[in-house]
Design goal:
Glucose Permease (Domain IIA), 2 domains
């Protein structure tokens, strides 16, 4: 299993902490097997959860100028026409993907192009499933313009557990389709705002695989 770079230090610290805790309890507090074995099992399961959370899957890179791919693993939570008021100030089709703690938490660029806009917004940590989390929670907004001057906005949103959004986006940067956009630590959400004439290829409740699932044709 490959561990993402954003999780390597955390995985190492958790391993050291759990190892030290188990040794401390065994040598200095109790050698009772009724305590040691359950603690060892719980520690092992927790460490496996941390490993799984920060996993980096190996997936084939697909490139298609007219296709918008899913920027995250998760479940399609919203598909609706909405007023996007941060950058476009007009109506767009919003697709939202909810990421549970069991999903891969890497985010990818769904389209190749130049980053025309990037902004980090401090905010609250409401449950990511709540619609107002899109505008009230801590988040980043990234606008990508492709070579045909088509623009989409991708928004990373923190959830009630997520406490850190990592983005590799910078204004003026040229990005490849399905290259890494960033990482969100623990449950969260990603919104994509598309042109009204986009042909949507997913439906509510669909499971998405980042870089693999086609969200729309533009």
């Amino acid at each position: 299993m490959t561990i993402h770079k954003e999780g390597r230090s955390i995985v190492a610290l958790v391993f050291i902490f759990l190892g030290a805790l188990n040794l401390l309890i065994y040598f200095f507090i109790t050698a009772n097997s009724f305590v040691i074995w359950p603690l060892a099992i719980i520690s092992g399961l927790f460490f496996l959860f941390i490993l799984r959370f920060f996993r980096k899957p190996s997936r084939p890179i697909i490139n298609d100028d007219n296709t918008v791919y899913a920027p995250a693993d998760g479940t399609v939570l919203v598909i609706e026409e909405t007023e996007e008021s941060e950058y476009f100030n007009d109506k767009r089709i919003q697709i939202s993907i909810f990421m549970s703690v069991w999903n891969v938490h890497i985010n990818w660029f769904p389209l190749a192009g130049v980053i025309k806009y990037f902004k980090y917004h401090p905010g609250k940590f409401l449950v990511a499933r709540v619609p107002k989390s899109s505008t009230l929670n801590e988040r980043t907004s990234v606008v990508i313009e492709d070579k045909k001057k088509r623009q989409i906005l991708v928004r990373q949103i923190a959830g009630i557990i997520a406490r850190r959004i990592i983005s590799y986006a910078k204004e003026g940067k040229q990005v490849d389709q399905n290259s890494e956009l960033g990482f969100i630590r623990f449950g969260s959400r990603v919104d994509v705002f598309l042109p009204l004439d986009a042909e949507i290829k997913v439906k509510l409740g669909d499971k998405t695989r980042g870089t693999q699932t086609v969200l729309a044709q533009i």
